[in-house]
């Protein structure tokens, strides 16, 4: 894991999301997955990997997953087009969920450090 308290480095997190999204895109293109299930699957992949990633990486993962979801779940065959307001809503949802997952995934680790440091100062006093 990375230097950031057990979080995935950017390259590892992006690689995991990219490979998972490629597999989902292949499943959608071959007709194995419906577009609705695929859309939820792209979102789930981004959120799960974001849980172990720093917030900035999670935002990038949200962008990566929305590109795949737009190209394979909303459109067909990887065609990227802008649908106006509906794409803005999707983009905000993907980004918000990814960053929220990142923050919730490590909130307990980040909050205990000041207390442990204060306890050490009191002991050594």
Walkthrough of the structure:
By secondary structure, this protein is mainly α. The chain has one domain. Helix content is 77%, strand content 0%. It has five helices and no strands. Helix 1 (10-29) runs antiparallel to helix 2 (35-51) and helix 2 (35-51) packs parallel to helix 4 (85-105). The longest helix is centred in the C-terminal third of the chain and has 21 residues, at 85-105. The two termini are 34 Å apart. The model has no long low-confidence stretch (mean pLDDT 85).
Biggest sheet features? none
Number of domains: 1
Rough outline: elongated
The H/E string reads: HHHHH
Kindly state the percentage of residues in helix.
over 70%
Binned strand content = under 5%
Radius of gyration: 18 Å
Quaternary status? single chain
Q: How many β strands by DSSP?
A: 0
Mean pLDDT over all positions: 85
Estimated structural class = mainly alpha
Tell me the distance between the termini: 34 Å
Uncertain spans: none
